[in-house]
Amino acid sequence: MKRLEKKFGFSPAPFCTALRRCGLVCAVAFFVAMLFSCASVLGGDNVKVNAFDTLEQDSNAYIRVPVKVHSELTNNLLKAVIGSDVSEKYIKNITDSIDMIYLGVGSPSNKGRLQIACDGNISSATKMALSSMENWKKEIKNVNTTGMYTIYTEANSKLQLCVPGSNLICLSKDLTPQLTLYDKEASSQGIASILTGSGAISNASEWKSSEVYKFVGDAETNNVRIYMDTPIAFVTNLLGVSLSTSIFQLNLLEADLTLLPSGKYSIDLDMEFKKDGLVAKAASFLNVALLLTDSKVLITDDSHLKVNGIQVSIAQLQRILALN
Known about the structure:
Helix content: 25-40%
Shape: globular
Order of helices and strands: HEHHEEHEEEEHHHEHEEHEEH
């Protein structure tokens, strides 16, 4: 499994904390996007950059959610963030306006970092839903390139929002890294004549050939996908059993989530272990732990173990992701 070398741990707690800090601001941000012209001089609406390319490459976890297929999960996630008293119509205005959500969670230096990038098309109904923008400050910002952006900062949370190109929304407490990546990607595509650095193209090539990018950012699937480094807490929460850290020494985990007709999710896991000899021990443990389920445990090679068909409800999935 080819991937960029990463050695960072991940716990669901920072994901929950970072996401909740956005609060109502995150929801309002989706409404804001089409009310203002946020295009850069790089090409504005003519620029077509994959939203995932605006997330930094050192996140501890990446999450991809196709909104239309997973509308109930998206609705529940938004309610967990902005409060259960928000009307269904308000939530629907958001989900009707975006197609894909990408999240980059945590980093080596900031476990609470949250970067959000959305592909979508903000509808006129959503545009009309917002009645006030009193708490947002507008500024034109340079991001260490010749690209200039209109950025909106929410007064209380300091969350920043920008629409750098066509159908692309970026959200973070500090948008400079995401907008710099946007500039580099736009330049590498030949959309603009501005060069952002001699290493931009080679770095992008390495990133786009990585396992992380192929699994999350370039996947042609309607499934939810999650990538984590050393995700012992996630596996523990998912299986509901305590795991021996001497056995479950994981480099990474990839989770592919399929929505079933029943409304439940079927989760397939692919775990990469740090040391040879651990996979067989882990398989034996999991076969016992999952004995009364329909899940299947498969050893694929000396360092990889797959668990297929773990079924959970949407409520359980929210708890596993520490959104409750």
